[in-house]
């Protein structure tokens, strides 16, 4: 048995691996399994056998996790990750989130003091707000312009080769404009976004790299701020194939039921808003730090702006919230640039969410400045 592996005991004895028919789910280290109705949880280590530390008479995993509301026992993060995976496979996001709270780095980011910051203070921290908060995607803009020129040239060539009359040519132009308008109305420009993103990924390595780093920024900041990532995509095609979303170039989803409950209740706590603000700006912050200017992330900024309008923020209060979030997010990312680079490589290689989380935990295992 591997040192530090977690064993579930049933009726006071160490259980052997059993089948799902007996009600056990979630295979993890050492061949043990966690049962929703287990009676006892023990920590074992190698040949030393059963240690004195034990958590007895727990009616369920839920009851065990309710104790103290803090991180419980110093077991390897892989144990918790496997338990989280088991709960996600069962569709139990609330339980998965409770398990995630046992991980050392989850929600452990050190934050800058929450107060009103001026633009001058941001500049003193080498942050130029005008380059940060006004992203323009020059790569896709260039591709869009080239496609429009190509479409015109193709139309002229087709007209001459096929010897179309002016009415046929006009009909073709009207059809082209009509299809574009339908896409904008019905799909929010989704078909165009899918086309541009796919071409961008095929033609530009820099674009692929930027998108991966952008999403890695969202993933890392969210995790360190206490939002558990659930899935990610790095292309419009992947998003369309997995979620049927047409107007998404890339994205990261989270276990955010707590946030949704607050929104539905009409009141978002300041702590939750702080987290959401930093997560929304993390992609833009990543591009700003790495490239000096952000190209992607305009929709992230717009969504954050819309949220603060819904919450009834004045412009002054919204500006204060954004400036704090900008400074805090940039500070987190600057502390962990090496980890962020490794995470972006993991995501580009298609690693699972839990593999990415495992990387974060491994890299920050001995860090005193998360």
Automatic annotation (TrEMBL):
The GO molecular function terms of this record are: ATP binding; ATP-dependent peptidase activity; metalloendopeptidase activity
Q: Which domain of life is it from?
A: Eukaryota
Gene3D superfamilies referenced in this protein's UniProt entry, alphabetically = Peptidase M41
Q: Which GO terms describe its biological process?
A: proteolysis
Record-given protein name:
Peptidase M41 domain-containing protein
